[in-house]
Structures are given as structure tokens and as C-alpha cells.
Amino acid sequence: MSAPIVQGWCPGAHRPMMSGDGLVVRVRPRLARLDATQAMGLCDLAERFGNGTIDLTNRANLQLRGVAEADHQSLLTELTALNLLDAEPGIEVRRNILVSPLYQAGDMTARLTQELIDRLAELPALPAKFGFAIDTGPERLLAGDSADIRLEIGPEGMILRADGAETGRLIQDSEAIDHLIALAAWFSQTYSPERRRMARVVSNLPPEWQGSTPGPVGSPLQPGPCDQGTLYGAAFGQLPARALKELIAHSGAQALRVTPWRLVLLEGGAAISAPAFVTDGTDPLMTTDACPGAPFCSQAQVETRDIARALAARVPGNLHVSGCSKGCARMGPADVTLIGNAGRFDLVNRGRAGDEPCQTGLTVETLMNMDFT
């Protein structure tokens, strides 16, 4: 099997990525939020220009797939009309910001995120996937998600923490973004083409950026009501556009908030019947990852999501079905990982898609008769 091509960058709106079914166009919601008009408008664009679904990524972004190259400029015009597009492409690629989704309007998380958005132009040149996490609620919810610089709350107050460091720098919220930009500047002078993420250079971190312990990690969010509205799960991160638009309208939601956990929060929305979405936190689809697979991705060696649905309830723990050894749907290990290889599957137990398999050349029929317990 030939090695998959690692692009080294993520698609955006201005700079989409070609896939097996057309362009992938990524929308980065500001403050992890689209108001109801924007969200329903994006649903319309997914049906008009894409394949009728919206992908929710593990970086809490939204993607339209299957966009024809000839339609790209028209789609950008529509995204601009919805205020979902940065006029300057250079700002768009810097806006890699994860936001803890349970913030209240105007609170510290909202204020810090907005200030960072307003000051993105002050950041130094950084690698394409370099990102930030604003995780300043009472418990850390983003500790396991990809970010290079983190704002968190610890026992002593707010800390700025370099990813990979056990402790961070105690700061005042009024100077938080100043220090964040300064830490980004340190990284920009330190990284190399081989070490493009903070965790790869953190061993060289000066002591002034360390010393204060972050606070506790909160329990993972689950589908169901919460103080801000109702959470709904998206199997494989897929949001059927028409069903999502109807859910927003019928629930009375004022906005859609996105998360990196295949959950969306309908802000102010009631908990109503939603057969197209996951509403039970024990549903095995919430612990199953699968990329789009063939023919939707040109690098995928197999179809993925049908077999993932068929096996989800039979695999204890986490299941990851990957179309190739790149493992886009899940960067971390899973209890069972299946990797497409020339129309069949390789099996990795308690590992990642790129790890050495313990079995190879498995057919769908073989998998359906295997005991994974």
C-alpha cells in the first residue's frame, strides 16, 4: 500500500482542498457560534453547492463537501453575505481557535476569544495547523483536544500554558492576549520544519512560562439538555443539512454552537425528537470514528461508514475505521482500529491508524463474524 499524502495544511474557505467528491470548503465559526440565520443559511448552501451534509471537524469547524470548482466563487459570495467569511485570507488561516462551548455571553471566555480574534494580525508567522484553546470555564473541557497555546483556569487564577507543559504562567485576564502573542512569538523563533507543534519544542520552554498548575478536567459532554440549551450528537461528525435546519427551527434555538466532540449545542433550543442525530449518550456511535472513506476521499482504500455503523455496537470501547493509514478521523489510539488497504482492512488493537497491524487483509465478511470482546 502506498503511503497516504499528508497535506500539512487544513482546507479553508478561500483555500479549499480537492477531495474525491469535489472541493472541501471549511468555515471557521467565530466564538464557535453561528446565529440561527447563519446556521440555517449554511444548511441551504450545503444543499445548493455541496452534497447536502455539513461535516463537524475535530477542530470544531464546519465543512461543505462536494463543491464544484466552478461554484467556489459563488459559494464565497454567499458565505460573505452570511458574515461567515474573513475578507482577508491571511486572517482566516490564523483563526484556529477552540472555545469551550459552555460560555455565557460577555463572560471571560467570550471576551478573551473576541480579543484574540481582533488581534490575530499581531501574531507572528506560524505553521498552518498551529492553534489556540480558550478553556477558561470552571473545569477544563478542551484538555484532550489539539491546541498549541492554552488559556485555562487553575487554583491560583488564570494561566497561559504551552501545550505539552505540565504547568503554565499565572497571568491577569487583562493581559492574557498580550502574553499569548508573546508566547507565540517565542515559538515562531524556536520551531523548525521537523518540529511544527508546541509539544515538540516545549522541552526548551523558558521557566517564566511555567510554574502554575491548571485546574481539573471536566467530564465529557453528552447529548441532552444543559444550561445553554440542548446538545445533539452527530454520527461521524456528519450533520444532515436539511434535518439540521428543521431542528434549529423547530427547537426555537437562537444559535448553533460547535464543539470538537461531534456534538452541537442548540443555544436556547428545546430538547425535541431528532432521529437524524444522536440523543443518547450511551449510543455506540458516539465512541465510533470513521472518515468519509471511498469514493469521497481520493486516498481512501475502502468504504468506511457502513462498516463502522455495522460494527459500532459490537466493539467494546472505541472503534476507528480509517480509509487509509493517515487516520484523519481520529489522531489518538482506539481500542479497535481498522485501516483500509487495497479494498480490505488491517486491524490494530489499542493503537492508531499508522501503527503496525496485528492482522491484515480482512474482508467485510470476516469482520462481521469476528468477536471483538
Could you tell me how far the N terminus lies from the C terminus, measured between alpha carbons in angstroms?
Answer: 29 Å
Oligomer: single chain
Bin the strand percentage: 15-25%
Average the pLDDT over all residues and give the rounded result.
94
CATH architectural category of the largest domain: Alpha-Beta Complex
Query: How are helices and strands ordered from N to C?
Result: EEEHEEHHEHEEEEHHEEEHEEEHEEEEH
Query: So, the CATH homologous superfamily of the largest domain?
Result: Sulfite Reductase Hemoprotein,Domain 2
Low-confidence sequence ranges:
none
In summary, what is this structure?
The protein is α+β, with helices and mostly antiparallel strands. 22% of the residues lie in helices and 24% in strands.
Structural features, described:
This protein has 373 residues and is α+β, with helices and mostly antiparallel strands. It folds into three domains: 17-91 and 221-267, Sulfite Reductase Hemoprotein, domain 2 (Alpha-Beta Complex), CATH 3.90.480.10; 103-209, no CATH class; 284-368, Sulfite Reductase Hemoprotein, domain 1, CATH 3.30.413.10. Helix content is 22%, strand content 24%. It has nine helices and 20 strands. The protein has a five-stranded antiparallel β-sheet. A five-stranded antiparallel β-sheet has the order 3-14-15-12-11. A hairpin with a 4-residue loop joins strand 14 and strand 15 (263-267). Helix 1 (36-49) runs antiparallel to helix 7. The longest helix has 14 residues, at 36-49. The chain is globular, with a radius of gyration of 21 Å. The protein starts with 16 loop residues before the first strand and ends in a 5-residue tail after the last helix.
